[in-house]
Amino acid sequence: SSIQLQDLVQLGKIGSGNSGTVIKALHVPDSKIVAKKVIPVENNNHLVVNQLVRELTIMKSVHPHENIVSFYGAYYTQSGSNEIVILMEYMNCGSLDKILSVYGRYCQRRQNLREEPWFNGLVISKISYAVLNGLSYLYEKYKIIHRDIKPSNVLINSRGQVKICDFGVSKKLINSIADTFVGTSTYMSPERIQGNVYSTKGDVWSLGLMIIELVTGEFPLGGRNDTANGILDLLQRIVNEPSPRLPSGGGYNFSREMIDFVNRCCVKDETERSSINELLCHDFIGKYRTKDKEFRHWCKKVKFCLKEDKQIRREDNERAKLEKK
Ligand code: ADP
Ligand code: MG
Questions:
Q1: ipTM for the whole predicted complex goes beyond 0.90
Q2: Ligand 1 atom closest to Cα of 98?
Q3: How buried is residue 24: exposed, middle or buried, by Cβ count under 10 Å (0-12/13-18/19+)?
């Protein structure tokens, strides 16, 4: 049962990334909300596009899993502008990068209120478990390696589910279409940058970096890079500098289990780095195993704050418009 593109009503833009734009849409026949990713393509590379759509369609054979965003279909439309459309499950709390930026604004508004950080041990443990469990499923069952674990590809919903998306698609194809390298690839492991064989352990490295970013609010290894030179610098830093670590001191108080967990992810030598299955058995995961209800509660709170943030930003925008007049 494939979704027909003409049965979709667009409800608004969710966000955009390197390759395209993600839109919230309603599938009218069964009143279901879906996420629609639109990737514009040049007129001239139909071969590449057809191969990409074929590759994407393989995703449809991945059976539903609690930690994988469901895939509904990939399309190539040639009416008007050419674009690839990918339909997938809509996750109503959005991605971790979005939640992180909303958290930043939330803290700014409540400066005098001392609050628990959003990304505490419980939350990081639950997110890590979900990512590892999803990665393990993709690899054990389909031999798919994700290759692009980063905060914007880990999505959450208010039912307390954490799911990974945007996996398996060969980056070479995507890049040949999007033609952008700048601003990407920062979560790549040292062995991948050096061109060695890429295994599932590359995703473990990315998970480690992602955790450090979530708890500190900053990308480790020296900030975002928006110029081509910046990217080359960063790639060199990943290979040459010591492994990134969770900060010690500075008001942070991470548990022994969490520090050890991150240390095992962020090992530069791939052979020394823990595997997905080893990490699934780590004490940091076990410690919070029975805390599903608490995590679900956290997701609901995030949903509430996202709504509040949207409202405040809308009001700010309107005020700014009025002041201009
Ligand atoms: P990137 O992952 O590089 O940011 P994408 O085009 O994959 O770029 O996604 C853009 C944004 O859309 C993401 O950052 C995320 O916040 C949001 N998004 C993507 N897929 C979904 C989805 N299935 N449900 C809800 N939000 C999504
Ligand atoms: Mg993405």
A1: yes
A2: 16
A3: middle
Angle between helices 171-178 and 46-58 (to 10 degrees): 140
Active-site entry in 30, 97, 148, 292: 148
How many CB atoms lie under 10 A from the CB of residue 97? 18
Atom 3 (ligand 1) nearest CA: 17
Nearest to 67 by CA among 158, 2, 160, 3: 160
Atom of ligand 1 nearest to the CA of 148: 2
List residues forming the annotated binding site for ATP.
37
CB atoms within 10 A of CB 224: 10
Range with the largest mean pLDDT of 102-116, 179-193, 288-302 = 288-302
Instruction: Name every residue whose Cβ is closer than 8 Å to that of residue 153 and which is 6 or more positions away in sequence.
Output: 95, 146, 164, 165, 166, 167
5 vs 90, 181, 309, CA distance in Å? Answer: 16, 30, 31
Q: What's the pLDDT at 223?
A: 56
95 lines ligand 1 (CB under 6 A): yes
269 catalytic residue (yes or no): no
